[in-house]
Amino acid sequence: MATLEAPPAAPPAVDFSLSEDQQLLRDEVRRFSEERILPGEAERAAEHRFPEEIVAEMAELGLLGMLIGEEHGGAGVDPLTYCLAVEELSRASAAVGVTMSVSNSVCAWPISRFGSEEVKRRVLPELAAGALGAFGLTEPGSGSDVASMRTSARRDGDSWVLDGEKAWITNAGFARWYVVVARTGPDPGKRGLSAFAVPADAPGFAVGRPEEKMGLTSSRTAPIHFTGCRIPAGNLLGTEGQGFKIALAVLDHSRLGIASQAIGIHQRALEVSTAYAKEREQFGGPIVELQAIRFKLATMATELAAARALTWYAASIAERTPRHPDAPRLASQAKLYASEAANRACYEGVQIHGGNGFHADYEISRLFRDVRVTAIYEGTSEIQRMVIARHLLH
Q1: What pLDDT digit, counting tens, does each position of 173-223 carry?
Q2: Thinking of the domain 244-393, which architecture would CATH place it in?
Q3: Which residues are designated catalytic?
Q4: pTM for this prediction
């Protein structure tokens, strides 16, 4: 007679009410976003101009050190509080949102988690004070297949020497520090990878020509090059050969930020579409009175609520100790659902705007272009489904 297996442990309960501190931060970031970011975003996007003045103001608010401990000058907030800030920034500007998210989540966080005490003391106060960070994982011939990367690092006395190229690097040219994954051993695949903290002024480091992108045009994205790039041996993160593990941990963490970015875009798409539907008149009245339009708005609002709930839940257990086994799966589910729901919302927003939605002067047009990449970077939707399925079938 077959025996019944014990059911898996139930996920921890989550309280969806925000603490007083979280609500205060959310309100402050929303005020900052509406007063300082949103008014100039259309102009910055049209000019492909990086928001340097906004970055400086975010540093003054402590938004660039959110995931850095207080002992190194940061705020040391929990993942959910960080996600709230990313969402509010992205509601005003997806480009500003990703600039802040990348610096926090894929640069400061891995240095905080895997760096030596000496590296932390040297790097983290700079990042917390406003220096930007970046992450070098993708290469021209290595995207989702991380194990096929070719950038190398060899030990030379008290230094590591890097050679190779990374592609699609957010904040490239403006970042002071880069977390870079490179091949350090002869083993093929993922076993020979290591991670490093690389300063922008390291000899042999260079930034290539900025990419011309479909969206996020006020965010800077460019390749970076290493030609005999020499860094101190102590800039190794973790241990030699731990790079693949570090990269996966970084992606698990950063996917919550991209989910939050998508939620911010989704929220704004719903707002501008609702406002337009109330103002635009056809067939003798505002189009919001038409059932076809109302149903679109209802679906947008429902999927927004679902995306936010899933992301907040994933964030609430992301860094519990001991680590919850569902955390990586939930991060992928949040990123998958939030990004695809936001893409659907922006599509419907353009439909609601009709021909005006195709015009660059309307904000929904920018939202439509900006949102597309949320289903691509930090792991495509297809990669997220692979991650989710692997956890389900393990």
Answers
A1: 999 999 999 999 887 778 899 999 999 999 999 999 999 999 999 999 999
A2: Up-down Bundle (1.20)
A3: 378
A4: 0.94
